[in-house]
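Hi everyone,

Forwarding the result from last night's run.
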Amino acid sequence: MLPAPFEYSAPETMDEALDLLDALGDESKVLAGGQSLIPLLKLRFASPAHLVDVNRVAELDFLDEHDGVLRIGPLFRHKAAERSGMLASKYAVIAEAARQVADPIVRNRGTVGGSLAHADPAGDWGSVMLALDAEFVLRSKRGSRTIRARDFFSGPFSSALKSNELLVEIRVPAADGRKGGSYLKLERKVGDFATVAVAVHLQMDDGKVKSAGIGLTAVGPQNLKADRAEAALKGRALDDATIKEAAALAAAAAEPKADNRGSVDYKRNVVRVFTERGLRRARERAQGGA
């Protein structure tokens, strides 16, 4: 099937892009990597009157860390995240997730911001950003606003992003001291969407958990944050009993549905096992200072 007819614009500056989105409103869709949108267009599940291609807006593609904040541009590609030495050494959960996004072709073109804006509950980046307690900067012609990742996702393929807004920056609190992370993903085959995935990020201080983040993929109507599991870890030594307690709480936070990939109990059990494994892996990395 071919897409329905549409108009196409490729602005070269952020101001041009925002002007277009403001004028077009709900009639437009933003095209970044296109790895999610193009298939929807071909199936006519999405039929916008106008595509706004932001790939020429160079100011949306960046990665830097300063003043206590890691800043990621929405056009930063999955492949760039996979290859970043800085992310591998300081933000293991990002690097590990990037390696598991779809397949090499998708990783070459797909973008972190595009995936987040798509808000697929089986997408990888949402749970990663929840684990990292990230914030998103949304901008329109009328100004900017900042929203926490936990408040951004509102349901399947639904978010706080308005039709006249662009996601222009992802902000992650800079990792300091001893930190570690992990992203574990169950898929039916390489390159498939997650059946279940768990993102973990830890900061340790004097052998105890200073802060913990746990994000869940594909086990609810949106990416989920395991708040009670995180709270159970804070201020405690990460021994086996604490890990098992947190893993049980993470499994309880999951809201999976039974389908041809597995039953509710099966998916909750995978969350529990992956949380245990992820916490142990993150602990090892934190102890190694990376």
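Residues 264-287 form the longest helix (24 residues).

Cheers,
N.
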